[in-house]
Amino acid sequence: MGSRVTALTWRPQTFDELVGQDVITRTLKNAITSGRLHHAFLFSGLRGSGKTSTARILAKALNCETGPTPTPCLTCSSCTEIRDGNSLDVVEIDAASNNSVDNIRELREWIRYNSARDRNKIYIIDEVHMLSTSAFNALLKTLEEPPENVIFILATTELHKIPATILSRTQQFDFRQIPLFKIEQRLQEIVESEGLDVEAEAIALISQASGGSMRDALSVFDQVVAATGERMTRLDVQSILGVVEDANLLDLLEGVLKASAAQVLSRISDLVHFGHDLKQVYDALTAFVRDSLVMKSVEDASELVQRSYGHGTRHQDLLDQFSRGDLVRVLDVLVTQEPIFRHAFEPRFALELILLKLIEIRKLAPLEEVLAQIQELPTAAVVEPAKKKLT
Ligand SMILES: Nc1ncnc2c1ncn2[C@@H]1O[C@H](COP(=O)(O)OP(=O)(O)O)[C@@H](O)[C@H]1O
Ligand SMILES: [Mg+2]
Ligand SMILES: [Zn+2]
Fold it and tell me: Is 244 strand, coil or helix?
């Protein structure tokens, strides 16, 4: 099979192929159809979410022989040259390595000439936040007096580093994390079209590891294919990525909430036994408790949680049995103890200690509450009527 780079072979070539950026593709398509197009765009957002791909699709849409059209033909010389990165009228530069004012002066020279053949000259500047201040100023002059038929597409993962003067002269598109189920769908499509044999749960785990970046999902996918060949199971992905199974996280949280030191200790022992990196376990547990807290607090949490969790009813039952205060207490300790855990000489002991401490804190909690009530008694009487007025 050789080494594969799925991210490159599966770069979306049309707006419809782009996954999870519907608002952006709809807006761009409408602008192209109506002929009301900005001359400078700024694509910002997460790595591997489709900024460069969209810039190239937009370039094809504008310069296709059949265009401008939201559905470029993909076969004319403009389309194929843009796809292959050798169009004379579409230039891509990486600002990370061309960030000087001289580079921008060269660019201004270049745009002074008419386009070589195509309708527009399109300049794609990637990682634009890397430009030096003087380079930004030079670019600004060009954006202020845009030569005819020149279109800029700037892309960045770090929007906060872009000067306001540039922001105000561009139309901005924010590329969001791609919803995990859409990443799963895309992976499924790739698996089917390449005739691989991959368990659905393996795909789910890969997309969970992606953090909403399609490129990251595809590179994890390649990593697992390289190790396993054409058959891939959930266990393969788990052992290669060191993914901590939801059931383990649930066991740990349940052990803490139900004050079962035995359950906590034996689960940690299992995780060590299976060769898990406990730092990864700690992060996964923190994210799990955080998401549990969100699910406990918000009616429809699907937009706010990091990912979906298996074991639906067991997880939900546990959440039903305990209060938000209980979860806050667990998350509070996990977050504040994290630096201590990270620097621990023996991570296993540190994890055990932190979780057992949580069990002890919980036992102490009622006493704490009683003390707090006693202390609050006089003020509570004063505060009470005011509260009533508000409701
Ligand atoms: N929205 C998306 N839909 C489908 N594939 C995507 C998407 N975003 C990224 N990819 C995949 O990741 C690769 C890198 O994407 P790219 O557009 O270069 O990301 P960015 O420029 O945002 O870092 C693409 O070749 C493609 O395989
Ligand atoms: Mg890019
Ligand atoms: Zn074309």
Answer: coil
The pTM assigned to this predicted structure is 0.76
**How many CB atoms within 10 Å of residue 11?**
18
Rounded to the nearest 10 degrees, how much is the dihedral formed by the CA atoms of 17, 19, 20, 26?
A: -10
What ligand 1 atom has the least distance to the C-alpha of 186? 4
* Closest residue by CA, ligand 1 atom 19: 48
Ligand 1 atom nearest the C-alpha of 8 is 25
User: pLDDT per residue over 197-247, tens digit each?
Assistant: 999 989 988 998 888 999 999 999 999 999 888 899 988 888 888 778 888
Which atom of ligand 1 has the smallest separation from the CA of 46? 22
Within 6 A (CB) of ligand 1 lie 7-8, 10-12, 18-21, 47-53, 175, 178, 186, 214-215, 218
Q: Which domains does the chain have, with CATH numbers?
A: 21-175 (3.40.50.300), 180-241 (1.10.8.60), 246-374 (1.20.272.10)
Helix (H, G, I), strand (E, B) or coil at 132: coil
Q: What angle do CA 121, 93, 155 make, to 5 degrees?
A: 90
Radius of gyration over every alpha carbon of the chain, rounded to an integer in angstroms? 27
Task: Tell me the CA–centroid distance for residue 214 and ligand 1, in Å.
Answer: 6
